[in-house]
Amino acid sequence: MDSKLKKSIVNDRRKSRTRFKLKSSGTRIRLVFNRSNRYLSAQVIDDVAGKTLAYATTFESDFPKKGKNAKNKDAATELGKIIAKRAIEKGVKQVMLDRSGLLYHGRIAAFADSAREGGLEF
Question: What number is the average pLDDT over the span 44-70?
Fold first, then answer.
């Protein structure tokens, strides 16, 4: 088996295992952090109703850019502030962080810390 394929399978299993545990608890709303090759995004999802309550991404035209990169720690910090503000406007204060199987380090930690400073509890 190719090493890239094996790594992809392991990552997908970790992501689905984490997401299953978060969804099965069902007590809180999920704050999902996602990173693509170019951008960062975050969603506040209510799994019981099956709806996205708030959404923010670094791809938005009104996103405050600090430099050329829309995927670094500074962008993650700004994204955390924006998603916290939008979630609180919708009446959501308590969430569970779904990091999609990624390590709590770097951009994810910066995002989570700024979301906490913005008023979210997790």
Answer: 87
